[in-house]
Design goal:
single chain; 250 residues
């Protein structure tokens, strides 16, 4: 474990969210620099890009040789080429205030094989689009009941298309199925390990199960890990496990 504190051209001002691609390159959305800052897998500064006007990146996701960026300043998602030109390919949605697909305050993004999920904290909804920007549907609404959001932030989707949503107001994570039905929630205001303190980001990991199987009851199999960041408190990263009953041995 170590701290990453870049300097020179890579110096960060207000890093909000980040993404690591298949090559280990780190993409950082810096809200004060108003740029995406890129480092290689050794932490060396590579490049940066952004728009001259109406641009404040809050999150970044790399998929299908494209870089997807939530633009809080212009109420949209910008999609760039991943090559060294970082050319703006297109953006979405092209909508007006009041339209269902309009993004009031896009803060987090997650891209799957089929869809683009955007956490719109201004509408208290998770809005779902196709890769080319066609609006499909939304999940949630503003409120204090189960299935609603107060401050929806980090999002992630597992291989079964279940949607995980961090709520910094409830200080928990809610899980929805692919039809948008609430399955369960976990977390809660901080009381100790397993609880949350102003959570912000979530990710799902299928690759590092071997380090955590020892913590799981032998009656269950560990399917994947769920990692949640907390902005305050002693537990900055909490790790949870999704489990399923183990098959009986013959």
């Amino acid at each position: 474990f170590d701290y990453f504190i870049p300097s020179g051209l890579g110096q960060l001002k207000i890093p909000l969210n980040c993404f690591i691609d298949e090559n280990g390159f780190l993409y950082v959305a810096d809200g004060k620099r108003r740029q995406i800052v890129i480092f290689d897998n050794t932490g060396k500064y590579i490049d940066c890009f952004g728009e001259a006007e109406n641009f404040k990146p809050t999150d970044v996701f790399v998929y299908d040789n494209k870089i997807w960026v939530t633009n809080l300043k212009n109420n949209r998602i910008n999609v760039y080429s991943k090559d060294s030109t970082y050319k703006l390919l297109y953006y979405f949605p092209e909508a007006e205030t009041g339209d269902e697909e309009f993004l009031y305050s896009p803060v987090n993004i997650y891209v799957t094989d089929d869809n683009v999920y955007v956490s719109d904290i201004g509408a208290s909804k998770i809005k779902i689009y196709t890769h080319d920007g066609k609006y499909l549907t939304s999940v949630g609404s503003y409120g204090k009941n189960s299935g609603q959001f107060v401050r929806a932030k980090g999002i992630a989707v597992d291989r079964e298309s279940n949607l995980f949503v961090v709520d910094a107001g409830f200080e928990n994570v809610q899980i929805f199925d692919k039809e948008g039905k609430l399955l369960m929630f976990f977390g809660g205001p901080y009381k100790g390990p397993g609880y949350m303190w102003l959570p912000a980001k979530i990710t799902i990991d299928y690759d590092n199960l071997q380090y955590f199987r020892k913590y799981v009851d032998q009656r269950f199999n560990l399917k994947y890990l769920i990692l949640v960041t907390n902005q305050y408190g002693p537990d900055k990263i909490s790790i949870y496990g999704a489990v399923e009953p183990a098959q009986p041995k013959e």
